[in-house]
Design a protein that fits this description.
The chain is built from twelve helices and seven strands. With 271 residues, the protein is of the alpha/beta class. It folds into two domains: 9-149, NAD(P)-binding Rossmann-like Domain (Rossmann fold, 3-Layer(aba) Sandwich), CATH 3.40.50; 153-268, 6-phosphogluconate dehydrogenase C-terminal fold. Helix 4 links the parallel strand 4 (79-82) and strand 5 (101-107). The relative contact order is 0.09.
Amino acid sequence: MDASFRPKIGIVGGRGRMGRWFERFFQDAGFQVLVSDLDTELTSRDLAEQCPMVILAVPMDCFQEVVQEVAPLIPEENFLTDMCSLKERQVEAMLSHSKCSVCGTHPLFGPGEQDIMGKRVALCPARGTRWFDWWKAFLDSTGALTAVFTPREHDRTMAWVQALNHFIILCLGKSLEEDGIDFKHILELATPSFERQLNIVARLCMQDPELYATIQLGNPYTNTALDTFGKYSTRLRTIIKEGDREGFVKMFKEVQELGPSLLQHCRKNRF
């Protein structure tokens, strides 16, 4: 099969925000899409029986239950994937309860985006190559930026990309709240990089705190990332408290040494 292949797609949890987004996305690309959710006439069993490709777009806190119900019903020649923000336990569950082709999928963007062009999508192939090759080729053909990881690589990396990032943003928001500083003054003096951080804090009002809690608490690599970050934040805090200019310059230069390698990867990944 090639990227022009258009199987009937079933989205379990299709009335959630990401489920609706992908329903529109697939319909615009010429697919027939069936949707099941708590308030739909169609059930997840219907989708498993009628759709060669089934997508699980359900909250992570009910993912295991849904997999146990749906995965065993999918024929061996068909395809199962998901939209979860974590992958190790999710891919393992899909493999354990199914005989079909399996791939973990993580769209690294939210339902507020207009299209998939230039957006990152992580893929974790788990069983079978035929469906995976088609899925990746199709996403690439739409302009998505796909990257392939093992589930462990994905979750370990997401501890930095999501868990630590959310940790920093939450602490920044609470610190600004406690200080009581005038937001008008902050914005009038904000550098471009700090203004971007403030925009992220502001946009938290549109996010689901339960999802963020699951990402923070459900990733087995979160504490390692936070412990490492805490070690260096404590060291830098001590340097500043003690007025240790030499120590500050030394740490700054150590981080500067990351620059050439990081810039090279940023350019390669179209930053």
